Each structure stands twice: as structure tokens, then as C-alpha cells.
Amino acid sequence: MLIDALERSIIHAKKKNWNKIYIAVDIHDVIVKGNYIPNVLPTDFLYGAKDTLKYLSKRSDICLILNTCSHPHEIEKYLEFFKARDIHFKYVNENPEVPNNALGCYDDKFYFNILLEDKAGFIESDWYVIYTFFKQIEILQ
């Protein structure tokens, strides 16, 4: 199912003549194991998350968007934590690159091609699938 979604996102981007796809990524239990302790930033990466996100951060045909309900002060700490590990999110909880149009209003829900979210079925082994998929394909480069 994940491979199908990744392939569809590439087909869609090519149809639209886009030079990238948008991947929205949750933090807790997707990138790092949630500890659910207030004021204690979790830093234990899920297996494969760090290497995959570092790799995706370097690709010009992928735009990573941090998708989180964390508080603003926590988001700042997360962005610093990720940046120190060569993981770069272009946006947080928004995608200004895809404006409203005749087919979609993105005022309250930003546009993405792929959502990596534990509450939407993401599991830790998906990092391996994503890394392997993108290592084998040149999308829009």
C-alpha cells in the first residue's frame, strides 16, 4: 500500500509538471519514539528514520514538511535537533507552495502527496520501504 502511494505521488507530480513531491511527517512515534513527558524532548529515533530523513533532505525533488501538534517552543527545539543531524524540514504545518485553486482550498489543510503519521497507519518498518524506494528511483531530478 505504501509503495502504491509513493508511485501515485510521482505519477501525479509528473502529470502536473511539478519538480517535487511533498511529504508531511509527524514527529512522535514516526520520527522519534514518543515519551509523553512534558518538557522532555524525545530523541530516540525509530529505526531507519534518521538515515531516511537525512537522505530525503538532500533531494531537490522532495519537500519535507513537519506535521505536528507540538507547541511552538517544542517545534523550535525539534527543528534545531533535526538540523544538527542534517535533517531539514522546509515548512511546519503548512505548504505555501501549493495555493488555493479551483479544485482545492488549502486554508485549513495544507497540500501533501504523502503523509507519514502513526495514526494513519505508519509503522516503523515503513522507513526501510521509503528509503529503498527512493534510492532506486530518480523521481523528478
Give the number of helices.
4
How many individual β-strands? 4
Strands across the major sheet, in which order? 3-2-1-4
Helix content: 25-40%
Shape: globular
What count of structural domains?
Answer: 1
CATH architecture: 3-Layer(aba) Sandwich
Percent strand equals: 5-15%
Structural class: alpha/beta
Give the class-level CATH name.
Alpha Beta
Radius of gyration: 15 Å
Structural summary, described in words:
This protein has one domain (2-136): Rossmann fold. The model has no long low-confidence stretch (mean pLDDT 94). Helix 3 (72-83) links the parallel strand 2 (62-66) and strand 3 (91-92). It is of the alpha/beta class. The two termini are 24 Å apart. The relative contact order is 0.24. Helix 2 runs parallel beside helix 4 (126-136). 33% of the residues lie in helices and 11% in strands. It has a four-stranded parallel sheet.
Question: What attributes does this structure have?
Answer:
single chain, 141 residues, alpha/beta, 4 helices
Summarize the structure.
The protein contains 4 helices and 4 strands, in the order αβαβαββα.
Annotate the secondary structure layout:
Layout: H1 2-15, E1 21-25, H2 49-58, E2 62-66, H3 72-83, E3 91-92, E4 114-116, H4 126-136
Parallel strand pairs: 1-2, 1-4, 2-3
